[in-house]
Amino acid sequence: MRSAGPLLILTAGVMLAGLFGARNGADFAAHRADQAAGIASPLPDPGQRLRGWLHVGGIGWGAGIGLIVLGAGLARRRQAGEASGEGAHDATHDMGEGLKELLGRTDVIAKQIAELPMDEDAPEAREALDAISFEVITPLVDARGRFIARHGLAVFTEYFSPFSAGERQLARAWSALTDGHAAVARASLANARRSFTQALDAWEKAEAT
Fold first, then answer.
1. Could you give the residue ranges of the DSSP H alpha helices within the chain?
2. Of 65, 83, 101, which residue sits at a domain end?
3. What is the mean pLDDT of residues 47-69?
């Protein structure tokens, strides 16, 4: 909801300005009337049109314009903060802690299906994989702009590429469990663990420099 705040303000401003300022000011109305009568007249300049809208729309139109300016400013400020890496060290989005959690959860799931026969379902394991995606992977993916600002694109790629490979292997494990291919699921989890380990090593190296 917090991230939607600037957009809601901007939208409210557009609606309010449109509601109160839908009609043209007197200068523009006169210009249109002259055109309809075949009389050449100069188009009112932006300042004249702005004053005309304010005269017609009054306080409501002015308030709408104010909300548009406020919403746009807040949106730009938020975007600039994310691009500059503001909050990059927030533990919720810390890549190192996230990778350690991924390794731990992957190990738990691997134990759950270690003896799973072929053609049998494993709903608990699939639910655990879904939880990993929602609770760990998605926040890390959403924070990628902060990681780039933190380490630079080249270093970021060194740990984010194996992280992405591990994510794909978890998705493959989920699909394999759905299809009853326990052996493929076990192999995919092992591959995911290797990728996450590689990503963690690269992350710790980036943090140490």
1. 5-20, 26-36, 46-83, 95-112, 123-132, 138-142, 144-151, 153-179, 182-208
2. 83
3. 66
